[in-house]
Design a protein that fits this description.
Elements lengths: L9 E5 L4 H12 L4 E5 L3 H17 L5 E4 L7 H14 L5 E4 L14 H29 L6 E6 L14 H21 L4 E8 L5 H17 L8 H12 L10 E4 L13
Parallel strand pairs: 1-2, 1-4, 2-3, 4-5, 5-6, 6-7
Bound molecules: NADP nicotinamide-adenine-dinucleotide phosphate (NAP).
Family: Belongs to the short-chain dehydrogenases/reductases (SDR) family.
GO molecular function, one term: oxidoreductase activity
Keywords: NADP, Oxidoreductase
Length: 269
Amino acid sequence: MVDFNVNGKIAVVTGGTRGLGMHCAEALVENGAKTVVITSRKPKACQEAKTHLEELAQKRGLKVEIISIPADLSIEQECENFYNEVAKKVDKVDILVANAGATWGAPLEEHDVKFVKKVVNLNFVAVYHTIKLFTPFLEKAASQEDPSRIIIMSSIASLTTNDAVGTYGYNASKAAVSHLGKNLAVQFAPRHINVNSILPGFFPSKLANGLLEVVGDVMKSTNPRGRLGEKEDLQAVLIFLCSKQANYVNGITLPIDGGAHLNTPAAHF
Ligand SMILES: NC(=O)c1ccc[n+]([C@@H]2O[C@H](COP(=O)([O-])OP(=O)(O)OC[C@H]3O[C@@H](n4cnc5c(N)ncnc54)[C@H](OP(=O)(O)O)[C@@H]3O)[C@@H](O)[C@H]2O)c1
């Protein structure tokens, strides 16, 4: 029997208030984490997500501390404040899920440079900054047998060059974070921190729903598995990558997309 779990771990999930970040936070709560820290910009969303995760833990008969701290990670000072607030509550971190992200899509002629900067700033620069801040804490929790884990939420958009809706900054930012993950995987391995990137295909969420309304049917019909991603698809991979058993898995970029990146539909322009 193989029992994948994150028993006793302290985890931080950025953008953990909804969507894929919430799926990750729920999985960590349900699979043994001792403490789960979540963050996003909106205080109300943070509070509601904290209550939801506490109720989930209670329902499962688990004792999990949920900490929620509002912060805009794309603003350097707020990212530092977030780290400082976490450091007041825990003294190490076993798992960092760098998930917070945003997108913008428009044809090149209408795609202002400011949107590219905004997306790259959150999806790449803020991920770099968050990892930089938390590295000493991850190192404190790390061991040869069970390294600490950084999970970067990249995207299959990092692999494909078939940009159907003009997400120029998004696709490049995801290729950049995947590269950062590989770069750090090599540098951090001697410090016993594993770095892996997850590359989701299309999962319903606030970020993806606009696009799914327009091209959702095509996404399903061209997907080799014939469907969109579901919460459990992501949760299983996250818990595996964070488990003791995956301690030799380092530096990967793992698509969770039913094979969609091998069969992308033709661009519309
Ligand atoms: N859904 C998909 O199909 C898909 C596919 C591939 C990759 N991804 C990646 O998965 C990650 C999560 O996406 P999602 O689909 O779950 O999107 P989502 O539903 O829009 O969730 C994004 C999360 O990030 C937070 N956030 C946004 N801007 C932030 C900022 N400046 N500082 C801190 N937190 C911020 C949001 O909360 P606030 O608004 O309160 O800040 C929210 O909690 C992203 O990196 C995305 O690129 C998603």
